[in-house]
Amino acid sequence: MNIIVITPPLVQLNSPYPSGAYLTSFFKSLGHDCHWYDLSLELVYAIFSKEGLTKLFELSEEKALKLADKAQSEGDENTAFNIRRYISTKNNWINWIDDILLILCGKSREKEHQFLFSPYAPRGARMENFLSSMDREPSVDDVRFLCSYALADLGDYVSTVFDTEFSLIRYAEHLTVDERSFSEIEKNLDSPVMQHFYQPLLEKRFEKMPAPDMVCISIPFAGTFLPALFTARFLKKLYGDKTYLVIGGGFVNTELREVSELSLGKYIDAISYDRGYGSYKALFDSGFLQNRKNLPKPLYKLRLFGADSILPPLFEQKELEVYETNLTAQVIPDYSDIDFSLYPRVCDDKNPMHRLWNDGAWIKAYLAHGCYWHKCAFCDTQLDYVCGYRPVNVEKLYRGLLQTAREKGVYGIHFVDEALPPKFLKEFALLNARNGNPLYFWGNVRFEKAFTKDLAALLSFCGFGGASAGLEVATGDGLKVINKGVDIDSIAGACAAFKEAGILVHAYMIYGFWYDTAQTIINSMETLRQFFQAGLLDSSFWHKFVLTKNSQVFYEWTKGQHDDLNPVLPKASKSIFANNNLHFKGEDKYQKFGPPLENALSSWMHGQALDRKVTKWFDFPVPPPTVAKDFMEKAIARYEERNSRKIDFSENKKLYWLGSILVETEASVYSWIYLQEEFAKKLTRPLVELLKKLSPLSSIEDYDKAFESIKKSPEMQKQIQGLHNIGLVFV
User: Fold this and answer.
1) Using H for helix, E for strand and C for coil, what is the string for 357-382?
2) Strand 363-365 and strand 412-415: pairing?
3) Is the pLDDT of residue 177 over 80?
4) Which of 202, 211, 411, 436 could form an SS bridge with 242, CB 3.0 to 4.6 Å?
5) Cα 44 vs. chain centroid, distance in angstroms?
6) For residue range 245-270, what is the model confidence (pLDDT) as tens digits?
């Protein structure tokens, strides 16, 4: 079969979304001809190019000037000036836009000088705010920031005067997350960006292409659904019944799990749920694609749309569940259709963890599908992407990613796991070291006691550079209520271990839980402040709690638990298309806490106002925190105490030497560098030779021989104790 996989607009600018890579690999493994098109990236270039901006200004100039006149008549001189400036300097924007994108892709270094210093380069409000906020003269090293803000300025113009649904990384998101019927969503299909930019893109890409046997549109987020629907409508009209059209992806898995909207069948033929491997196997094996006159019997995780009926899926089928489990371990993402050099690396924040997210064309993959904990109250624990924990074959994945890195010239890996399993993360790290540490990698973890000081140091040595994780509730009681499975000490210990090892750390926070009070939010905020003050976090983000139909807490509520939770269930008469998000009584009570929490966090992430009392951030009365002022200080002291214990050679752990080359400075005295510090000790020559072979960079054979020698020598074990935490780790 000839299969096309599509990523619809709009997703993160700097990297391709990985679902396309996994589906492409899967289809090819079955012997099908498959190609993946990232239409999100293509739409960015369709708009933000010389040709695109010329068209944009032609279509919008008249409306823009009217909006400027209106703003001026209402006394908004600033808006009027900015809109008119876009029109007045449109030729500058048109002439510069291709270079702006080239600079963001790491090219055209010479033009960076001109873009900064030329008085004829375009300027917008965001660019000027960036320049005026600097406490020094800007240099050419600031130009990628300037270009990022230039792109954002143009995005503001598009959303203000041309298409209000537009955003650089999402499109018409609110239409699919609000309580709307499918017909209301349909009414917005022919929006300006879709009609004037996306339609011509689709025509250019597909009109001369022979009809594929199947098209799979992966819809990861709500902000990609409307463009996905537009894509499906276009392809249906173009190819008709020659092509079988299926949608799937994260948004579909959560929001359209029970969809019964028959009119969706005008656009698609089927919905594939969860990983897709089992559903597509069931579809291929059924023979239905060869004879589509009548719907077959129900198929595994595949909802089929007929002329006047919908065939719901089977969500359980043992044979195909085993098939998916086995396949999940083996599939290596296929990026052969992707040109990473075309992805803009935007820099919109100087925070190092935020830079990690956006400033790099990361190869995305996972070490395990699902979450190995999958018990948090707020998570969709009833769905496969959380509860379907399936680890991969780590060695096979490493070989595949290393090959992709060498072919594409991109050596950064972003693991998109729900939570990286420490065991498999360590295995991947050691494989990287034994291959000379060519890859730099980061991803989402759980802040737990498994991430010791020793393990963090080893991971850092082997290329692990960033950890993001859910802290959610920075109070002991709160962590218990949401069933996080960790305590504050474990979280503080993991953060401290990562930071000591030079690993960037990000924490996700949540406020507005069903049980929250002003006191619990303030306490969580104070603990978070202490995390930043202690240098345990680089960045964080506050989310407002959203109750979902597939969450653990809602499931438990249906079983008679959580009397303090009062969901507001949709009326049976109301037709809601996307139905995973639920309302609950009191959910708006703490909405007002959002801006103060975000303002404080923005300052803390940039090292500012860390000593300011948390209550001072609010313009309404809040209670003082009941968290002790030395709460985090004591947690760190306990972390240090745990790491001062001696090595116990009876434990099933291994030794690794992470220090630099041992240099003899005087008779039997050796010095080395570890974590940028110099150390020196008196050591025997035989031990020095063994330590060299304990490096993660050593071959397995050399390492095993050295480790066994130390295990057999009590004398060497005594010397080893003095090297722990100053170059030697035990994991």
Assistant:
1) HHCCCCEEECCEECCCCCCCCCCCCC
2) parallel
3) no
4) 211
5) 20
6) 999 999 999 999 999 999 999 999 99
Q: Is the dihedral of CA 233, 234, 237, 243 positive or negative?
A: negative
The region of weakest confidence among 132-136, 207-211, 517-521, 628-632 is 132-136
Is the separation of the CB atoms in 570 and 547 below 8 Å?
no
Q: Is the pLDDT at 574 greater than 80, yes or no?
A: no
Question: Residue 339, Cα to own-chain centre: how many angstroms?
Answer: 20
Output the CA torsion 532→533→536→537 (10° steps). 20
The three-state DSSP-derived secondary structure of 453-498 is HHHHHHHHHCCEEEEEEEEECCCHHHHHHCCCCCCHHHHHHHHHHH
* pTM (predicted TM-score): 0.95
Helix (H) or strand (E) holding 403: helix 394-408
259: amino acid identity, one letter? V
The C-alpha atoms of residue 628 and residue 20 are separated, in whole angstroms, by: 48
Question: Can you tell me the distance from the alpha carbon of 428 to that of 230, in angstroms, rounded to the nearest whole number?
Answer: 40
Specify the DSSP class assigned to residue 269: S
- Comparing CA positions, the residue from 428, 421, 369, 362 lying closest to residue 395 is 428
Q: At what angle do helices 518-533 and 631-642 cross, to 10 degrees?
A: 50
Contact present, 443 and 415 (Cβ < 8 Å)? yes
* Contact call for residues 243 and 270 (beta carbons, < 8 A): no
Residues 418 and 388: their CA atoms lie apart, in Å, by 11
Indicate the average pLDDT of the chain.
Answer: 95
- Residue 521 contacts residue 389 (beta carbons within 8 Å): no
Please count the other Cβ atoms lying within 10 Å of the Cβ belonging to residue 114.
15
Residue 11 CA, distance from chain mean position? 11
Sequence letter at residue 358: N
Nearest to 334 by CA among 302, 368, 377, 364: 364
Confidence of residue 350 (pLDDT cuts 50, 70, 90): confident
375-401 residue pLDDT tens: 999 999 999 999 999 999 999 999 999
Q: What's the CA gap between 496 and 725, in Å, rounded? A: 14
Neighbours of 558 (CB within 10 A): 10
Q: CB–CB of 624/522 below 8 Å?
A: yes
Q: Find the Cα–Cα–Cα–Cα dihedral 256, 187, 203, 99, rounded to 10°.
A: -90
Pairing of strands 504-511, 464-472: parallel
Measured CA to CA, the distance from residue 518 to residue 505 in angstroms comes to 27
More confident residue, 293 or 274: 274
The answer to whether the CB of 158 falls within 8 A of the CB of 139 is no
Residue 578: other Cβ atoms inside 10 A: 22
Q: For residue 307, what pLDDT is reported?
A: 85
**CA–CA distances in Å: residue 536 to residues 500, 570, 727:** 9, 42, 22
* C-alpha–C-alpha distance, residues 228 and 217, integer Å: 7
Q: Are 264 and 182 in contact (CB under 8 A)?
A: yes
The whole-angstrom separation of Cα 415 and Cα 147 is: 27
Residue 92's φ and ψ, nearest 5 degrees, are -65, -45
Could you tell me if 401 and 463 are in contact, meaning their C-beta atoms sit under 8 angstroms apart? no
CB of 196 closer than 8 Å to CB of 158: no
- Take residue 649 and report the two structure tokens written for it: 């050679």
Phi and psi based region of residue 586 (left: phi greater than 0; alpha: psi -120 to 50; beta: remaining): left
- First vs last Cα of the chain: how many Å apart? 48
Phi/psi of residue 51, nearest 5 degrees: -65, -40
Is residue 573's pLDDT more than 60?
A: no
How far apart are the C-alpha atoms of 72 and 63, rounded to whole Å? 14
For 423, the token pair is 């065991």
Q: How far is residue 97's CA from residue 150's CA, in Å, rounded to a whole number?
A: 9
Burial class (CB in 10 A: 0-12, 13-18, 19+), 450: middle
- Strands 547-548 and 581-584 turn out to be antiparallel
Are 374 and 484 in contact, with CB atoms under 8 Å apart?
Answer: no
